[in-house]
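Notebook entry, structure prediction.
Reason for the run: the old model in the group folder had no record of what sequence produced it. Starting over properly, with the input documented here first.
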Amino acid sequence: MTSDPSKPGNADSKLTAAKATTNAPSAQSTSADIAAFVARAQAMSPHSAHARGRLVFALDATMSRQPTWDMACALQADMFSEAASVGNLDIRLVYYRGLAECRASRWVSDSAQLARLMRGIQCQGGHTQIGKVLGEVRREAVATGVRAMVFVGDAMEESVDDLCSRAGELGLLKVPVFMFQEGDNPIAEHAFREIARLTGGAWCRFDPGAAAQLRDLLRAAAAYAAGGREALLQLSRRTAGAAHLLGQMK
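New structure, fully documented this time:
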């Protein structure tokens, strides 16, 4: 992961460099890594009243995604609003675009910060890099803890087996992935469903340009990240999106 390409060399850019470079493969899971993470999780309940929820918000930022990127930017405040009703939430933006660019922001704790990040990014043509996103989430989960990941995209152009291997690592770390698919690409659907299944998360399709559907799904994911399964259960009594996700989660 590298810093914001839209503002090269700008110290005020809200994106910070992560340890892995764009072209370096993610390290494979080790027993020591997983044991260390599990020990931290056991020491402090991930959904305790005093713990901050951590949600990775990952988006496909290739050229075809600009309308959905703009829509997600407009809707992201709803995630913080929903989370505030049950707890606290920090969000880390991860996205890919262009030629082998995959980038991550620092953790942000309010919608104004996240909106500022997203407004500074323009989508660029390129292939999907979902594997790099999953690898970055695994790295962060082992290092500091992550409660959930959201992914919004419409395509998959990678090895399904490789993605499933990385998803399985997140499943061992108890990091559910919510795969939100725009449109009906069958190749993407197959991969997205498998990623969700292997991580104990959920897959859901929304119609192109359907802001209301995406809003419900993002609110549901934020509720889970901030308050756990109980918060998602409460929200499922009011929104179809939350009920759909809850019905799939293990």
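Summary: DSSP finds eight helices and six strands in the chain.
The old model has been moved to the deprecated folder.
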